[in-house]
Amino acid sequence: MITVSIFLIFTGCFFLYNTSKKASLNYGFVPSWSQSNASISNFLGVTLNTLGLIATITSFGIITGVLFWMFSLILILGCIVILAPLKKGLYKPVSLILLVLLLLETFN
User: Fold this and answer.
1) Per-block mean pLDDT, blocks of 10 residues, the chain (108 long)
2) Phi/psi at 37 (nearest 5 deg)?
3) Could you tell me the pTM of the whole model?
4) How far is CA 99 from each of CA 2, 6, 74, 103, rounded to the nearest angstrom?
5) Is the distance from CB of 54 to CB of 22 less than 8 angstroms?
6) How many angstroms separate the CA atoms of 80 and 74, rounded?
7) DSSP string covering the chain, please?
8) What is the pLDDT of residue 48?
9) pLDDT of residue 73
């Protein structure tokens, strides 16, 4: 459940980052779609972050879930702001890390 909540938070933050007017944005399928459909992307980003919050609250409890969500949100936003302008692509490394975490969480 932790990996799913981290994936939801990352995806929501990525949608919200790509709708920003001040950030240097990448050009790919998802960033260009989210730039052209800003209102839908904002709604999707907020919804996915809220689902991530609900997932962490159900996993850890209210106080610990909110604190874990806030820590994850700060960490993921920091990584997105630092790594996205480099235009190296966030999809492959993040997908690989989340897949390994999901396997470890499932089989542990």
Assistant:
1) 89 88 69 80 94 95 96 92 75 81 84
2) -120, 70
3) 0.82
4) 12, 12, 21, 6
5) no
6) 10
7) -HHHHHHHHHHHHHHHHHT-SSSPPP-SHHHHHHHHSHHHHHHHHHHHHHHHHHHHHHHH-HHHHHHHHHHHHHHHHHHHHHHGGGTS-SHHHHHHHHHHHHHHHHH-
8) 95
9) 95
Among residues 53, 57, 41, 63, the alpha carbon closest in space to that of 9 is found at: 53
Task: Kindly state the tokens that stand for 29.
Answer: 């399928």
For residues 90 and 83, give the distance between their C-alpha atoms in angstroms, rounded to a whole number: 8
Both tokens of 104, joined, read 């470890």
The reported pLDDT for the residue numbered 23 is 67
Q: How far apart are CA 17 and CA 21, in angstroms?
A: 9
